[in-house]
Specification:
By secondary structure, this protein is mainly alpha-helical. It has helices spanning 2-12, 16-27, 30-47, 60-65, 76-82, 87-100, 104-130, 133-136, 144-157, 162-165, 171-192, 197-215, 224-236, 242-245, 248-271, 304-323, 343-362, 367-380, 402-418, 422-446, 450-460, 465-477, 481-494, 500-512, 516-529, 534-546, 550-563, 568-580, 584-597, 602-614, 618-631, 636-648, 652-665, 670-683, 686-699, 704-721. 71% of the residues lie in helices and 0% in strands.
């Protein structure tokens, strides 16, 4: 043993200057470290400074805009039920909604803060690995602070990260990464802490807590126990395995995290939709390994086998995008590999096996390169394995794995180039980081709004249906109906058998254009593809209702309610149908259900108020109109209906006030002007009545009642004058 120690000491003697330099950078000055962190933060803020007004996109609609679970921050149970295994990110989105509503700037500020913290953690973890027993022996140890700084700069500046930072809902990926890295940093710090037992236990406890938060952020954090083992094998273990396997504290921590992974995985099996990538609580599934049938975005069946084979090509694509970040795309057009011996699939597999062989080969010489390769594969394992996900490739899946890539690239370049020319090494990294920063800034311009984003996707995935559908929605929102319809039809032509939502959107556009027959045809096609498509039943019911085909409309609204009992709008529409048929009690029942499901449904309150008025329940009518106004103080219809009820109930003062509110927001409203004139008649305010009836006649010269009432007011004014 002494002899071995002497050998280790002797190995450092030939170059005493480097031996002296390593500790100097290892300890570093706090000012130097703070300066590095400030530069990392400054670069992150600079290159994402143009992202704060980028709009919501794609899954942001389901997860934020239309997600009732995040509306009430005090209802934590609703957030948990929405997606238990992603509870923490959705909780933060609920905080954002509480503070910012649907103003995107607050969401982007939080996403950027998470990204910068992650870059800090990348810096810290890299530095910690150099302080481990094996890290200290690395030939790169003398430049450890510089390497940690460069790895963090590569991480914060790389344009591939924009999909995890600028795409708001992918806070899921960045927040899971934050807790993953933090847990590993605290673990390594605890293992290096040998003097203070209380501090050591505190660090282990912090590592476990961070791990638990990561497991509640996204499923790719399930690999964390293996990352801890990886750190042990590569950097912390110096002797035989028994030397560290006897550490009870270490075993308890790893076992605890593994048990948490198992428990959450079981919970995930019982609550998730098909595949790990499915959004929201999509319903129960028997197994995450079940094949995923064709849909709008994927006109093919995804099985564990073809998904795994496809991932060989996808992982190579990820590496290519990390090395040469051009052609970034929100929705890559990747088709599944059905045979291993397809040229692209087989060559990709050979390349990946060669990369793993390289990791094993360089392990004794440069553990940082080897660790980076294994980290990349390990952290991709959940989303690039045999668990099928409907979307075969998404760039945000590289966010956590990218740390391994940047570590191996930095360590490799320093290993090969730094000894020959330090200046060239720094110049190369300056160029790479500068170019990445420019590309990230430019990429954020693509994320600016829905049209800019989907124009970009269509140009890069012209044979994929989903980009056309989403661009069509963007055109529709912008009022460009013809372009929207053209894109919907293109999406259908690319996937005519499975794209129910394309038929649905086309039907919505046709209904708005008055093309009722075509709208019914395409709603029907959407329902044929997806028999539980509640909003398609509801949409077709509206068209039938507009054509006064009451029985067909009633059947469709009832079917929408059957397949989606929580669908407030379907209850509202069926209630409106009952109102049109003067079935007031049935209407009141449906409106009541609508407001139970959506307590801020102003139209439902207001229409129920009308129904109550029609059965003589004046107080309930006034109460419902007041509820609508409380939710939306500019809701003209509620003021008008309440004013009418006040007028009928003999309260002309309140009626005049409500009609004045209507006229404040809609000055040319002839009925409100006339009704306020009637209220002034009851109040015997003859001058005001005359003014309103005169104004009514200006707006509606043929209104004989206004003329008669004006003459009456004039006569009463003349009597009073005498």
């Amino acid at each position: 043993m002494n002899k071995g120690m002497q050998k280790k000491k002797a190995a450092h003697k030939p170059n005493p200057s480097k031996t002296h330099a390593a500790p100097a950078e290892a300890g570093g000055s706090s000012i130097f470290s703070a300066l590095q962190l400030l530069l990392i933060a400054f670069l992150g803020i600079l290159i994402y400074s143009n992202s704060f007004d980028c709009s919501f996109h794609l899954d942001d609609r389901n997860s934020i805009i239309e997600n009732s679970a995040i509306r009430d921050l005090s209802d934590v149970g609703a957030i948990w039920k929405y997606f238990p295994t992603r509870f923490i990110p959705y909780l933060t989105l609920a905080f954002n909604y509480q503070l910012n509503g649907l103003d995107v700037q607050g969401y982007h500020a939080v996403n950027l803060a998470i990204h910068i913290i992650n870059a800090f953690l990348v810096w810290w973890l890299t530095a910690l690995l150099f302080r481990t027993p094996n890290g200290k022996q690395s030939p790169l140890a003398s430049r450890q602070r510089t390497i940690a700084f460069i790895v963090a700069l590569l991480f914060v500046s790389h344009p591939l990260a924009t999909q995890s930072v600028t795409y708001i809902v992918q806070r899921l990926a960045s927040l899971a990464t934050l807790f993953y890295l933090l847990s590993l940093c605290l673990y390594v710090k605890a293992r290096l802490s040998e003097t203070n037992a209380r501090q050591k236990y505190g660090l282990f406890a912090g590592a476990f807590l961070a791990a638990l938060l990561g497991l509640l952020s996204k499923e790719n954090a399930y690999t964390l126990p293996f990352a801890i083992v990886l750190a042990e094998l590569f950097f912390l273990r110096t002797g035989k395995p028994s030397a560290y396997l006897k550490d009870v504290r270490l075993l308890l921590l790893v076992a605890g995290i593994a048990l948490a992974v198992f428990a959450l995985y079981r919970g995930f099996l019982s609550t998730s939709g098909s595949g790990i990538g499915s959004g929201g609580n999509a319903g129960n599934t028997s197994s995450v390994f079940s094949p995923i049938p064709p849909s709008g975005g994927t006109p093919y069946t995804v099985t564990p086998t073809n998904y795994l084979m496809t991932q060989f090509r996808v992982i190579v694509n990820y590496l290519q995008l990390l090395a040469f970040p051009t052609g970034l795309n929100l929705d890559h057009d990747i088709r599944p590999s059905e045979q291993l011996f397809d040229a692209g699939t087989l060559l990709s597999l050979v390349f990946l096996l060669a990369l793993l062989a390289l990791a094993i080969y360089v392990f004794p010489k440069n553990r940082f390169i080897s660790f980076g390769i294994f980290w990349f594969f390990l952290t991709l394992a959940v989303e690039s394995s045999i668990i099928p996900i409907s979307d075969l490739m998404f760039e945000h899946r590289t966010y956590l794995p990218s740390f391994g890539f940047f570590l191996l690239i930095t360590a490799g370049i320093f290993q090969v180039l730094y000894t020959k020319s330090g200046a060239l090494t720094y110049a190369l990294f300056t160029f790479i980081i500068g170019l990445n920063s420019l590309l990230t800034f430019q990429r954020n311009k693509v994320w600016k709004d829905e049209l800019s984003l989907w124009n970009d996707v269509v140009s890069k995935s012209p044979e994929k249906a989903r980009p056309y559908l989403n661009r069509g929605v963007a055109y529709w929102t912008a009022g460009q109906t013809a372009k929207a319809v053209s894109d919907y039809r293109k999406a259908i032509s690319l996937n005519p058998e499975h794209y129910a939502s394309a038929y649905f959107n086309l039907a919505v556009a046709e209904a708005a254009m008055g093309q009722a027959d075509q709208a019914i045809e395409h709603y029907t096609k959407a329902i044929a593809i997806s028999p539980d498509y509640a909003i398609a039943y509801d949409g077709r019911g509206v068209v039938y209702g507009n054509r006064k085909e009451w029985d067909k409309a009633l059947q469709d609204f009832s079917e929408a309610i059957r397949v989606s009992p929580g669908f407030a709008k379907a209850y509202y529409n069926r209630g409106s149908l009952y109102s049109a048929r003067s079935q007031w009690k049935e209407a009141i029942s449906d409106y009541t259900k609508a407001v139970e499901l959506d307590p801020k449904y102003t139209d439902a309150y207001c229409n129920r108020g009308v129904a109550y008025a029609n059965i003589g329940e004046w107080d309930l009518s006034i109460s419902d109109c007041t509820a609508s106004i409380r939710i939306d103080p500019r809701y003209v219809k509620a003021y008008f209906n309440r004013g009418t009820t006040f007028l009928n109930r003999g309260n002309p003062g309140a009626a005049a006030a409500d009609f004045s509110s209507v006229l404040q927001y809609t000055p040319g409203n002839v009925l409100a002007t006339y009704n306020r004139g009637l209220a002034y008649l009851q109040l015997k305010q003859w001058d005001n009545a005359i003014k309103d009836f005169t104004r009514t006649l200006q707006l509606d010269p043929g209104n004989q009642n206004a003329y008669t009432n004006r003459e009456f007011a004039k006569s009463q004014l003349a009597v009073g004058a005498k």
